[in-house]
Write a structure and sequence with these properties.
The chain has about 170 residues and is an alpha/beta fold. The chain has a single domain (about 1-165), classed as Leucine Aminopeptidase, subunit E, domain 1, CATH 3.40.220. It contains five helices and six strands; from the N terminus they run E-E-H-H-E-E-H-E-H-E-H. The protein has a six-stranded mixed sheet, sandwiched between helices. Strand 3 (about 65) and strand 4 form a beta hairpin. The longest helix is centred in the middle third of the chain and has 17 residues, at about 95-110. The two termini are about 15 Å apart.
């Protein structure tokens, strides 16, 4: 599996699917996933959000595939990062690892070839968790390319160093 770290806008990467980290809702309440109202949702179109919420609940360690709406990619993979009892924390290392593995397995199980994953811009532990998940998944196989996309050049540089890429 080829892993490439790039600086830029995740919605502009040519891939089959982009990963959208979301907050989880408890399976006990039966509530659908809590989607972050962010740029990705706005660009994809709110029908993507409606499709995702209609298929909930979803927990950390699970992922769902929806259409890509108005994005360049065909699909969006929604993968919860934080547990329902937690405040949504997109930089939680445990949540990032479980979320990333779920998203990658969802993509491979859907016979996709490439995905783009957002890089966390805040904590080193989050970056390490992402890299750990990619390495664990690489042993399983199933995808050709994974792009880690960040808007912060420092984080992208750190990821390139961690994956041993000169890209």
């Amino acid at each position: 599996m080829k892993i490439v770290a790039v600086r830029g806008d995740i919605t502009q990467v040519d891939v089959d699917a982009v990963v959208h980290p979301v907050g989880a809702r408890s399976s006990e309440t039966g509530e659908p996933p809590l989607l972050a109202h962010d740029d990705l949702v706005e660009r994809a179109g709110f029908e993507v959000e409606a499709e995702a919420t209609s298929r909930g609940p979803i927990r950390v360690g699970e992922a769902i595939l929806t259409t890509g709406g108005d994005l360049r990619c065909k699909y969006v993979i929604h993968a919860p990062v934080a547990r329902a009892s937690d405040v949504f924390d997109p930089d939680d290392p445990e949540g990032i690892k479980r979320s990333t593995l779920a998203a990658l397995r969802c993509a491979a199980g859907s016979r996709l070839r490439s995905v783009a994953i957002p890089a966390s811009a805040h904590r080193l532990g989050a970056t390490e968790a992402l890299i750990s998940a990619l390495r664990d998944f690489d042993a399983e196989g199933g995808l050709e390319e994974v792009f880690i996309v960040g808007e912060n050049g420092r984080i992208v540089k750190a990821i390139k160093k961690a994956i041993g890429s000169g890209n």
